[in-house]
Specification:
Elements (H helix, E strand, L loop, with lengths): L1 H20 L5 H21 L11 H6 L7 H10 L2 H17 L5 H28 L5 H33 L3 H8 L2 H4 L4 H13 L3 H23 L7 H16 L6 H4 L20 H13 L6 H19 L9 H15 L6 H4 L4 H4 L4 H8 L1 H22 L3 H33 L1 H15 L1 H7 L7 H25 L10
Helix pairs in contact: 1-5, 2-8, 2-10, 4-6, 5-6, 6-11, 10-11, 15-20, 16-21, 19-24, 20-21, 21-22, 21-24, 23-24
Length: about 500
């Protein structure tokens, strides 16, 4: 949690350069980013309370809070209050960003922060209590309310995208147009969340009749809903659902991150009929076993998370077409390698090799530890190759770069990700068994950043050296580090005891 809070504090400094380059370091830019966060992050999160999810009671809460004479409302407020310090850290982050990045006066930023802390928390807490614990609104009615909100959000998103694309084709891309749409009366009059944006627009962009009305409704709704939640009768009907949700969260936490995207969103893991056939010599059978297991868990072998790379690749390509000067084709290799570095260090979906370390047969197979590790991670390399194609090919074709550059970018994506895979195996799985997985994850992140300094330094010479030389240098570096960590992992993976804490 300390690392997360520290990361929040560093976000304004990390993003200042990009925001300035985009011309968003203004009051209007702050309104744009805060509006998108409210509509697409805060609103969906709040809607989870309709299904009595989103509020997590730990085991000790179940035994000591829900079983005590504490009222159901107090128990709910107690569970919600656990996130106060994170919310406060986010508010401080917005304050720092407003002053240091978006050039908002300090006094204006303080007023916005204080009002947000008081009224936004009153609003979110009261909404949570009403949605989560109300026994006057039936579950069917809650479902209908949630669906209506999602439909409105989807319709608005389609409308916004349509207008932006048509405006871009007509006169070029301009953030000012998006800001004007998000600050329009249609958005500010959206109940609860739009009213909250009314206060944001009022304090940052100045008064207009619509903004004054929306702000008044924001304050009135916060006070009114808080009073309603205080007077509302709650007998504790939500206890059973809260207990079920908390048990599911505890189960997911016990897996130590080894969960699918479906499970993370609270759904049961699906299984599909696929027989397959185990084959392969010695430890090569591990790869075929993983392939069969993936076909049974994924209907078409690839999952939705894999197609995110395809969407990102198309998005990058279209951005270079419609937004002159923002993404330059001359820097195609740097962009692709930079993306692969970021994804390899900070975006780590659950890997299939993690499940192999739980199987004792891994240590009984008549093969060398190095071959076992390679075959246990072979499917991961295959998926990395597919994802690299999804990301690089559409971006490269739309940016009209050479086929050779596309091949270079795909190869470097695969090599850098493979390198980080073996770093993770050594530090998180093997060393983590001795020092604890949480501490090992932190060490792995630090080591990953240090190791990636080599490729980053090489990218600075792309304008002075040939693309082939840069590709060769990064490839040789990645292969060297890859085999080093693969070897270190294999000599430490002799028996099952090497993976026990």
């Amino acid at each position: 949690m300390l690392l997360l809070v520290t990361y929040y504090f560093f976000i304004p400094f990390l993003t200042k350069g990009v925001i300035t380059d985009l011309g968003l370091n203004t009051h209007a830019g702050f309104v744009l980013i805060a509006s998108i966060g409210t509509l697409y992050l805060t609103m969906p999160l709040t809607l989870t309370y309709f299904k009595r999810k989103g509020v997590s009671f730990k085991k000790q809460d179940i035994n000591f809070i829900l079983a005590s004479p504490t009222s159901p409302k107090q128990a709910l407020i107690y569970a919600l209050s656990k996130e106060v310090y994170i919310n406060l850290a986010m508010q401080v982050m917005f304050l720092m960003a407003a002053v240091l990045v978006f050039t908002v006066p300090f006094l204006t930023s303080i007023i916005y922060l204080l009002v947000n802390i008081v009224f936004s928390n009153l609003l979110s807490y009261s909404l949570a209590v009403i949605m989560y614990a109300s026994e006057e609104i039936t579950l069917k009615q809650k479902q209908w309310i949630k669906r209506i909100v999602y439909v409105v959000l989807a319709m608005f998103t389609v409308f916004l995208m349509t207008m932006v694309v048509s405006q871009t084709l007509e006169s070029g891309f301009d953030f000012a147009y998006i800001i004007s749409v998000l600050s329009s009366p249609v958005v500010l009059m959206i109940p609860i969340f739009g009213w909250q944006l009314g206060w944001l627009n009022l304090i940052m962009l100045g008064p207009t009749p619509v903004r004054l009305i929306a702000t008044g409704l924001f304050f009135a709704s916060a006070i009114g809903l808080t009073f309603y939640a205080y007077r509302m009768k709650v007998s504790g009907e939500y206890y059973e659902d809260a207990l079920s949700f908390s048990e599911n969260i505890a189960l997911l936490e016990s897996k130590k991150g080894d969960i699918s995207l479906t499970e993370a969103f609270g759904h049961k893991k699906k299984n599909y009929a696929y027989k397959g056939e185990l084959k392969g010599l010695k430890s090569n059978v591990i790869f075929h076993k993983q392939f069969i297991e993936r076909r049974r868990s994924k209907k078409y072998f690839l999952g939705w998370s894999d197609f995110i790379y395809l969407i990102a690749g198309i998005g990058l390509g279209l951005t270079s077409l419609f937004w002159d000067g923002f993404i330059v084709p001359d820097y195609f290799l740097e962009i692709m390698v930079g993306l692969s570095i970021y994804l390899a260090v900070f975006f780590r979906p659950s890997a299939d090799w993690k499940s192999e370390f739980k199987n004792h047969y891994l240590f009984l197979m008549p093969d060398s530890p190095l071959n076992k590790l390679f075959n246990a991670s072979l499917l991961e390399h295959l998926l990395t190759f597919v994802r690299a194609i999804f990301l690089v090919v559409p971006a490269g074709l739309l940016m009209r770069v050479s086929l050779l550059e596309i091949l270079y970018a795909i190869s470097l994506n695969v090599l850098l990700k493979a390198m980080m895979t073996y770093v993770s195996i050594l530090i998180e799985a093997i060393i983590g068994a001795k020092i604890g997985h949480t501490f090992a994850s932190i060490i792995s992140m630090v080591v990953s950043v240090i190791i990636m300094i080599g490729p980053v330094v090489a990218l600075f010479f792309t304008q002075t050296l040939s693309t082939f030389l840069i590709f060769t240098a990064i490839s040789l570096y990645a292969i060297l580090v890859l085999f080093l960590f693969l070897y270190l992992s294999s000599i430490n993976l002799r028996n099952i005891e090497s993976l026990e804490e």
